[in-house]
Amino acid sequence: MGTGRRTPLVEELKAADPLISVGVLSADMMDLRGQIDEIEAAGVRILHFDVMDGCFCPMLTFGAPFVKAVKTGLLKDVHLMIEEPVDKIDAYVAAGADIVTVHVESTRHVHRALQRLAEMQNANDPERGIVRGVALNPGTPIETVRPLLDEVNFVMLLAVNPGWGGQKFAASTEARLDALGKMISDAQHDILIGVDGGIKKENIGAVAAMGAQIIVTGSAVFDGKDPAGNAAFMMDEAGKGAGRRTS
Ligand code: DX5
Ligand code: ZN
Hints:
Elements: H1 8-16, E1 19-23, H2 32-41, E2 46-52, H3 64-69, E3 75-81, H4 89-94, E4 99-103, H5 110-118, E5 131-136, E6 154-158, H6 173-186, E7 192-196, H7 204-209, E8 214-217, H8 227-243
Parallel strand pairs: 1-2, 1-8, 2-3, 3-4, 4-5, 5-6, 6-7, 7-8
């Protein structure tokens, strides 16, 4: 059960759990290539793109042209914080998105957005497939995921309200992760779980231990000092944390 329409990339990510997905928004934009090369050399595999439209959340960042312009061997994890993403997804897929995550609060048609993603090909490699994700704001009930279980590969819980890097991790996230994990396993599905926001050197181990398999981190890696060292530390701590999981 629950294995319908899974892609090779989903399987690859599952096998590599825990992974960090590093938020490009916190990088030094004047040295973007250098910063990305540094984290790639440190072993990072995923780059997180925070797409904000100034409507779904107050901040406005970048769109599909920027996602496309970033030439990298890293997987592109595109977090869409935009209103009504259904008809806008194609542009991000064409821009090379490997993971596409839409917010359940951003559209009346989140199920259709996921179905639509299932029909699309990965622009980097058609064999790879696209990971279909949904994201939930901290105030959104976990139950909203239940009707989507057959269509989703990845559920990402925000531990902050969308809009800004460098915010504080919401303590409620632990119980939410627990409830999500139970819902997925009770339904006998096999879905990746992620957390985004407020993840630092001090808490990444604990967040991995809570069951987060893909851990988004921005300002803790791109701190203006040592992205490679920070990324290595974060990956190491995440690995140790995952080793402490009880279920
Ligand atoms: C919040 C974004 C996050 C955030 C991560 O709107 O989705 O990806 O910028 O940044 P840090 O790790 O600095 O909280
Ligand atoms: Zn994000």
